[in-house]
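Tokens for chain A. Residues wanted.
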């Protein structure tokens, strides 16, 4: 299965080589996000209690990059289904689980490159880490783990919907990331909206990343996920994988 999955991942890398526009878009996106949110919006936002807003912001941008795995995987898988590629794969002597694993593995590698680029641009913009190499690497590993998990949501969605439907669902991802503590603290939100933001899995990831990187955070949190962000993020990740890995594998075997 591992060998077959890596072969499928190699196919994804080969497609990017022949369609460089998609790769350029995936790598330019992080730079655009840092400039747009860090300088355009950040110039009018202050961190409660003081602190550099771009340091407060960067974990939120990393989290936004993580959840875009839903979009890329859903679009890629739905396109392959519509073009009959999945039917060809099912006729080949390969492990059935290798197809979704290969897709998510390729997405993880590309996402890692994007995170490195975003981190480099963030450093140029004034972002810093303050807790040493170990917690910093743990923070990036957590972000990529979430990216890997949510890409399975995209694989499952891509196996159920058409490319047109998958493309129409893309705008939904951004409100999910914005309705969190990624860009502003949740304390200033209306009570009903704050509950949604505090329990948003993205908020737990952002809070955990800020703790690991040593970036500014807001201390007073009542919601359990923000009191224990690392545990909450790992719990969400395990739950997503437990549901969508078998669902994606089952659906791949039966999709027509």
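Reply:
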């Amino acid at each position: 299965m591992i060998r077959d999955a890596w072969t499928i991942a190699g196919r994804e890398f080969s497609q990017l080589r022949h369609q460089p526009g998609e790769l350029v878009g995936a790598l330019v996106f992080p730079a655009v996000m840092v400039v747009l949110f860090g300088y355009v919006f950040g110039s009018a936002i202050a961190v409660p209690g003081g602190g550099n807003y771009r340091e407060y912001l960067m974990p939120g941008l990393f989290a936004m990059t993580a959840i875009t795995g839903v979009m890329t995987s859903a679009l890629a898988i739905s396109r392959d289904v519509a073009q009959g590629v999945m039917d060809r794969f099912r006729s080949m002597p390969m492990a059935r689980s290798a197809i979704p694993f290969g897709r998510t593995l390729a997405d993880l590698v590309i996402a890692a490159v994007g995170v490195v680029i975003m981190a480099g641009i963030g450093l140029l913009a004034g972002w810093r880490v303050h807790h040493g190499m170990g917690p910093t690497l743990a923070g990036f590993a957590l972000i990529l783990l979430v990216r890997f998990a949510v890409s399975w949501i995209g694989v499952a969605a891509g196996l159920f919907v058409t490319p047109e439907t998958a493309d129409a669902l893309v705008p939904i991802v951004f409100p999910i990331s914005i309705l969190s503590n990624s860009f502003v603290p949740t304390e200033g939100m209306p009570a009903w909206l704050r509950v949604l933001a505090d329990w948003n899995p993205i908020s737990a990831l952002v809070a955990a990343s800020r703790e690991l990187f040593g970036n500014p955070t807001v201390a007073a949190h009542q919601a359990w996920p923000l009191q224990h962000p690392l545990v909450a993020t790992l719990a969400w990740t395990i739950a997503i994988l437990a549901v969508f890995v078998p669902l994606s594998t089952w659906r791949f075997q039966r999709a027509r």
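The chain has a mean pLDDT of 84. Residues 2-254 form one domain.
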